[in-house]
UniProtKB/TrEMBL annotation:
Belongs to the CCR4/nocturin family. Its EC number is 3.1.3.108. It comes from Mustela putorius furo (European domestic ferret). Interacts with PPARG. This is Nocturnin. The gene is NOCT. CDD domains: Deadenylase_nocturnin (cd09096).
């Protein structure tokens, strides 16, 4: 076995075997990463690239500078929002008819996912459709200095798929050397007072540099057309929970999610007009700062081509500024067979933003 390969198995192989996933209780804050030997991100990136040596080169995406005039005395906070496509759904249920089966092989697709994370080095990761938390992302990201939290769907569609790796759910990771966890809440979303199959995680973090606190939340709302009212009710429930957690918007807030809703839907309008004073960060990439990108997910299923804007990063527009945002892949980069592909591991694009606190939040948050 070549040196690279053996190193690969030294870093990537120190992950729990997949059977461990089903032995874990529903919700578990990961063990203290101090007790896991750290990995050098450059080494892990090299090892991932060794696995991906037969794949086409990574697409280049650039950060768009959105700096406003308010300078910040502290380093920005980089947040990544990403529905990484559950392996069981990608292989067993999602029917991406133009995606070759071998492009979804987990041993390579996981390295594409890790490569994207290592390329942009977010301080905070908000993920949906995580069905390899315990055997892959938690052990590896812990060794990169992240503390992780996982909250699976009560009844994940992954469990219907033969040879699944356990339920999918939302995961939230933050760098331990930058933030201290003040509070963590797992939220099973309701709709019209009924418990639903969708969840969220909301955590209050304190910046070690500035002692400023903020709330970061991740969610994944009910998919499919015909469920618009259901998503709207889930969104209202999440907003109510966040009102309480931020003590009525006293704490700045960032909410990441696959909302499974176009900007025309009611749930989007609830977030855009909430008393939490939120703005959608990716609107700032548009010329007038008022329009969402044309797509955040683009796939071809048996039902046809689906190009939608469903993923968002909402933030407290008075207390926080967006300093930059990662541009999306172009249609040419995505290619005619759309996503996922040999080039990109998910049907959803990652969204990445750099935030800073406004020194003195003007007025209410
Ligand atoms: N809800 C419950 O209480 C119960 C649920 N179940 C099981 O759970 C499943 C529903 O899970 P739930 O998560 O609530 O469902 P969702 O409708 O939210 O979708 C589940 C997953 O399917 C993907 N998806 C969306 N559209 C399609 C499509 N057209 N074809 C294939 N996949 C698609 C979504 O991906 P994306 O978000 O990226 O679009 C999402 O990850 C049922 O199929 C059943 O297996 C069974 C009994 C009870
Ligand atoms: Mg999906």
């Amino acid at each position: 076995m070549g040196n690279g390969t053996s190193r690969l198995y030294s870093a990537l192989a120190k992950t729990l075997n997949s059977s461990a996933a089903s032995q874990h209780p529903e919700y578990l804050v990961s063990p203290d990463p101090e007790h896991l030997e750290p990995i050098d991100p450059k080494e892990l990136l090299e090892e991932c690239r060794a696995v991906l040596h037969t794949r086409p080169p990574r697409f280049q995406r650039d950060f768009v500078d959105l700096r406003t005039d308010c300078p910040s005395s502290h380093p920005p906070i980089r947040v990544m929002q990403w529905n990484i496509l559950a392996q069981a759904l990608g292989e067993g249920k999602d029917n991406f008819v133009q995606c070759p089966v071998e492009a979804l092989k987990w041993e390579e697709r996981k390295c594409l996912i890790l490569e994207e994370i290592l390329a942009y080095q977010p301080d905070i990761l908000c993920l949906q459709e995580v069905d390899h938390y315990f055997d892959t992302f938690q052990p590896l990201l812990s060794r990169l200095g992240y503390q992780g939290t996982f909250f699976p769907k009560p009844w994940s569609p992954c469990l219907d798929v033969e040879h699944n790796n356990g339920p999918d759910g939302c995961a939230l990771f933050f760098l331990q050397n930058r933030f201290k966890l003040v509070n963590s809440a797992n939220i099973r979303l309701t709709a019209m007072t009924l418990k639903t199959n969708q969840v969220a995680i909301a955590q209050t973090l304190e910046c070690k540099e500035s002692s400023r606190q903020f709330c970061i939340a991740v969610t994944h709302l009910k998919a499919r057309t015909g469920w618009e009212r259901f998503r709207s009710a889930q969104g209202c429930d999440l907003l109510q929970n966040l009102q309480n957690i931020t003590q009525g918007a006293k704490i700045p807030l960032i909410v990441c999610g696959d909302f499974n809703a176009e900007p025309t839907e009611e749930v989007y309008k609830h977030f855009a007009s909430s008393s939490l004073n939120l703005n959608s960060a990716y609107k700032l990439l548009s010329a007038d700062g008022q329009s969402e990108p044309p797509y955040t997910t683009w796939k071809i299923r048996t039902s046809g081509e689906c190009r939608h804007t469903l993923d968002y990063i909402w933030y407290s527009k008075h207390a926080l500024s967006v300093r930059s945002a990662l541009d999306l892949l172009t249609e040419e980069q995505i290619g005619p067979n759309r996503l996922p592909s040999f080039n990109y591991p998910s049907d959803h694009l990652s969204l990445v933003c750099d935030f800073s606190f406004n020194e003195e939040p003007d007025g209410l948050l």
